[in-house]
Write a structure and sequence with these properties.
The chain is an alpha/beta fold. The protein folds into two domains: 277 residues; 96 residues. The protein is built from twelve helices and 17 strands. The strands form two sheets. A 15-stranded mixed β-sheet has the order 1-2-3-4-5-6-8-10-13-12-11-14-15-16-17. A two-stranded parallel sheet has the order 7-9. The two termini are 40 Å apart.
Length: 391
Amino acid sequence: MHAAFSSGMDNSFIGNVIATLLQSNCVCRVSLHELVDWQLEKVLVAMQVPYPELTEIRLRLRHSHVDTLSVIPPIPDSFLGGSAPHLQHFELNGIPFPGLPKLLLSATHLVNLYLHHIPHSGYISPEAMVALLSVLSSLKTFCFEFESPRSLPDCECPSVPSPKRSILPALRRFIFKGVTEYLEELVTRIETPQLNEMDITFFHQINLDIPRLAQFINCTPTLGAGDKVCVEFDDWGASVTLIVHHRTIGLKILCENKSPHRQLVSVTQVCNSSLHRLFTVRDLYIAHGYWQLVWKNNAIKNIRWLQLLLPFTTVKNLYLSKVFAPGIAAALQELVGGRITEVLPSLQNIFVKEFKPSGPFRENIGQFVDARQLSDHPIAISVWDEDSDME
């Protein structure tokens, strides 16, 4: 039996859902979307007993409800009778559940765990989360996203890394949203030999120091050396995506486009954070996904662009959005004399979106191209066909 509903539920319909939930011995899937607080409360009251056949549960608050300051009732420890032995898929959106580790210790067949928009009242420490993950030997997907940057580890100073790590043998996909301090604590305690996709989002911080995350990525064998890196700026932040064949490592920093300087500084910190996978790529893309562009080239100092490009010593092909091309070209112009190969020493080609033979980019790049030619490191300028090159 499958119990499900979405938005627009009236009292009679929710009553039917509750009646279905009360048949606990028959229910195998529960998928309840667009919940508001009073509906969630009724559902939680009904689901205080064991569900011996339950394999999948999804509880999602209405998005507009998550964004308000409404008091969301937490899931009690007695949820599902405190045991879920056959559970394979568990998903919460915006609902606090501090006792989650205790429940899932019995869910030894769990394959997918999605925790979206975790409110501060549902905080789970890195130590408790690792203790849980260590027993979920079948887990393939782990999504853990906090609602705000308030969810910091309990200690102010990072603890000494544990000498013994928990191995997650089946984990292939890892999604995280939160602060760097939390993730740094988490990755020191786990090993993921089969991991092939990471999607990390950080709330904006002045100091994006991630040495333990960098070490974790560098030591994960399945991620391998990268083929391409895409640096992208959009309305919500800046991101660095490393593409390894068909696998990806994505790191995003939330920072509004009203502050392009902060976006560039943040993404530069990530690129210069000892991520060795970035140092062997051949192709570098610098693009944007703005709905409404507010970026102005003269708002960014040339040194900022050079700092971003500095770690990419093996890049042969540089792909530039037409928005950023003039500013980056102006920055490269500063590399004269003995500094001409200080940044992007292996560069052979620059591809520019909607490239034109004349204009600000061509005017800015000319001296750099001539100097590279004289140093026996020639560079060709071409049009970037974005549709065919970036899938």
